UniProtKB/TrEMBL annotation:
Alphabetized UniProt keyword annotations: Cell membrane, Membrane, Transmembrane, Transmembrane helix, Transport
InterPro entries in alphabetical order: MFS (IPR011701), MFS_dom (IPR020846), MFS_trans_sf (IPR036259)
PANTHER family per UniProt: BLR6921 PROTEIN, MAJOR FACILITATOR SUPERFAMILY MULTIDRUG TRANSPORTER MFSC
Name of this protein: MFS transporter
Compartments, record wording: Cell membrane
Transmembrane segments: 48-67, 74-93, 99-123, 135-156, 162-182, 219-242, 248-270, 282-298, 304-321, 341-362, 368-387
Record's keyword annotation contains rRNA processing: no
Coarse class of the protein's main subcellular location: membrane
Length: 399
């Protein structure tokens, strides 16, 4: 029981770090109109604050796998949280959009290792028979963080100002960083924080070749990239769309989209039963279809209350599809799990970055309805594609 208690504490702290990191990712979404007004630009251009974070977050994640193997995954996560605090502190004082974008790049780069290395640490330390349930509990930190970011961004923008949102992130990162550092010291004292010397000698290029040389890994990585592009490219503009279409406040618009987290939490409760009933292929198909209905609801809902249903469906549908991808990611290259999961997370967030950049152009040139309509059509097709790929996948041994 003492070992289980230590494990539960360590995972809870990782979930807290993921919560703050996910909050930082989504916190700019509802404040885009205010950023555009303050810096004298369009909403699409202001979205660079979202894109910059996502690009840095996505690119740097692929380098954190070998770094975590060399210095210890938990230790690297703790250091990353303090570096994120520095980037967010810079955003508080940003005097121009370019400076804000630069600070978001720093925060995204520093935070890139938090989620993938947390997942890899769980893969290293939790037996396979308990791993899926443990990952689901860890996932709640990310789900709630994304919701909190959406809500806090709109709330601060409507009240004391958007800079205070970044100040809140600084406080969150510092508090979690201290707790993580204390846990690193506890693990070191009990001999749990040792690094595998063999793994530490493996360089980035060798591990990347191993992952990218695996055909099934390439399928999973490509699918999660497109998933991030289609889902989060549209969701980033949902608060602005609701604010402009229905004349509601940014706080209300951010809160409506934040209900997305409810759908994700519903998934964590019913995941086991749905998996038994539908199987992995059924989950992928169902996820794509539910996401399609969600974005149609955003597009066609005659009143703002429809967006409540849309957000719940978006969260539920996303995790139906994404959890299936994530489970496959932890086993697609067992001999290089840290690097494989890091590349998986990198592709997800690079997809988000590409999606927000593309969505910004679509919104500025065509309009938000085209954005939501496109996602509503393509996401069911993506779910069907991955379900078909699952049927032909190679069977990888459990590690």
């Amino acid at each position: 029981m003492p070992a289980l208690s230590s494990e539960a504490r360590a995972i809870a702290l990782l979930a807290l770090a993921a919560f703050v990191s996910a909050s930082a990712f989504r916190i700019c979404d509802p404040m885009l109109p205010q950023l555009a007004a303050e810096f004298g630009t369009t909403t699409g251009q202001a979205a660079r604050a979202v894109t910059a974070f996502a690009v840095a977050y996505g690119v740097l994640q692929m380098f954190f796998g070998p770094l975590g193997d060399r210095y210890g995954k938990y230790r690297v996560v703790s250091v990353a949280t303090f570096a994120c605090a520095l980037g967010s502190a810079g955003a508080v004082m940003a005097g121009s959009l370019d400076v804000l974008v630069f600070c978001r790049v720093l925060s995204g780069a520093a935070g890139a290792g938090i989620v993938p290395l947390s997942m890899a640490w769980i893969g290293d330390n939790v037996p396979y028979e308990r791993r899926q349930a443990t990952l689901a509990r860890f996932l709640t930190g990310t789900i709630l963080g994304m919701s909190a970011g959406q809500l806090a961004g709109g709330l601060f923008a409507d009240t004391v100002g958007w800079r205070w949102a970044f100040a809140a992130l600084v406080c969150g990162y510092l508090a979690v960083g201290v707790l993580l550092l204390m846990e690193v010291r506890r693990q070191r004292a009990s001999g749990l924080g040792s690094v595998d010397p063999g793994a530490a000698r493996q360089g980035f290029v060798a591990q990347a070749r191993l992952v990218l040389g695996t055909p099934w890994a390439r399928v999973v990585l490509a699918t999660v990239f497109v998933e991030g592009l289609l889902v989060f490219g549209a969701l980033a503009f949902a608060p602005s769309y609701l604010h402009e279409r229905f004349g509601i406040s940014l706080t209300a618009a951010g809160a409506l989209v934040a209900v997305y987290a409810v759908g994700g939490l519903i998934y964590t409760v019913v995941a086991g039963r749905i998996l038994k009933r539908l199987g992995e292929r059924g989950l992928a198909v169902a996820g794509g279809l539910v996401l399609g209905v969600a974005f149609l609801s955003y597009l066609l809902g005659p009143v703002w209350m429809w967006s409540l249903l849309a957000s719940v469906l978006a969260g539920f549908g996303y995790y139906l599809l994404h959890a299936t991808l994530q489970t496959n990611a932890t086993q697609m290259v067992p001999s290089a799990r840290g690097t494989a999961v890091a590349w998986f997370a990198s592709c997800l967030f690079m997809g988000q970055a590409a999606g927000v950049a593309l969505a910004g152009a679509v919104v500025d040139e065509i309009g938000a309805p085209a954005l939501f309509g496109g996602s509503a059509v393509m996401l069911p097709l993506l779910g069907a594609f991955f379900a078909r790929a699952l049927k032909a996948r190679p069977r990888v041994g459990v590690v």
